[in-house]
Prior knowledge:
alpha/beta; TIM Barrel; 8 helices; 8 strands; globular; binds D-xylitol-5-phosphate; binds zinc ion
Amino acid sequence: MGIQISPSVLNADLSNLAAEVARVESVADWIHLDVMDNQFVPNLTFGLPVIEALLRHITVPADCHLMIADPDRWAPGYAEAGAGSVTFHVEAAANPRMVAKDIRAAGARAGVAVKPGTSLTEIADVLPFTDMILIMTVEPGFGGQAFMADMLPKVREARRIADAADVDIWVQVDGGVGPDSIEQCSAAGADVFVAGSAVYRDPDPAVMVEQLRALAENAARP
Ligand code: DX5
Ligand code: ZN
């Protein structure tokens, strides 16, 4: 599939979501939508009604990152609403295999996310039903945090796991990804890059998306 860039609107103007997405729509592969419930993480953003409304106004596929408790109950609804990819946290799921299966059955790619302190052994069970592994490179909850370089070995491990699988599993990094960190992530084997503040704090978010893509492509392993 190659390098993909998924700008996060978390630090964009949330009162004007469709317009903010439009600023990157011609260059982004996905738009990353961070759903937070004030339970799984200490922050509250938006949920299914807002995403359903947004989907009527955008053409770029939605990459929903659910930082919520009980994804077993809530995750399939995001796929049914038309998200292209739905990622849940393994730490929050009662039955991760079933969540991933339900997401796929509802027509989306299924992603499984791990917080910085969570080992990849926790996702072994769900891997056969997984389309993407999301390695958090900050503690989930807020945009604009510093990239955790000590997560790079985990990115390499995720790449090994993905390469060993029969199916095509993508490796996504999320948190503090920008011009100073994207090359290390790409060299470690990530292929889907979430960037929030790096993109939306730039005067021209679309140009930044293209810069990030070029940096990631040049640093990617052959
Ligand atoms: C953090 C979110 C990220 C966030 C990234 O919990 O999952 O998607 O928007 O923002 P930056 O790129 O600013 O770290
Ligand atoms: Zn995210």
